[in-house]
Design goal:
This protein has 207 residues and is an alpha+beta fold. 57% of the residues lie in helices and 15% in strands. Helix 3 packs across helix 4 (96-109) and helix 4 packs across helix 7 (139-147). The longest helix has 27 residues, at 180-206. The N and C termini lie far apart (78 Å).
Amino acid sequence: MASLYKKVIHGRPYWYLREMGWVDGTPKMVSERYVGTAAEIEALLDAREQAVLPDRTRHLQFGTVAAAWGLLVDLGVAAIIDEATGPGPSGQPLSTGTYLGLAALNRVVEPRSKRGFAEWWRTTAADRFTKIGVSALDHRRFGDAMHALPVDALAGIEEKLALRVVEEVRAGHQLGGPGYDELRHLHRHRQRQGADRAAGQGETETS
């Protein structure tokens, strides 16, 4: 078993790595290697840590986006919409239901315009778990998807989604996965912000 051992030579501490073992039934030192002074050991550790640090890092949104996406998947939102709309416009990379589901996801997590969606998507880790690259998210695609959804299909889609929610709740499933609590917290926080803004506007109008 190896352990660090300090020797004091001329009043200065030096560190060694000793390995102890059993020899003829007696514990004895079987090897000893010089490690260095405390300053030398610190320099070695600093150099090792520096060697494993990445040159750059990216900080991407994950929790709320993953929770919202999980909720869409659990409810089968894209499939329900696609069933009502049929095949999407020619050349559309994703289905109509997927585009509309993504639009809903963005509204829940961090609202952006259709033009701003792709840039926002780059700030998240969503492409890793949705397998949807930013190249498929041109703002015109969202417009095409919205035009592909007949107005008279909305009531049927809403009914199917409501029934799906009831089925999931009755089955005891946790919608949205582990991040769903975080998503609910975000939603409640934004509701409070909206209420505070409305109250502030009311005070301004009456003052």
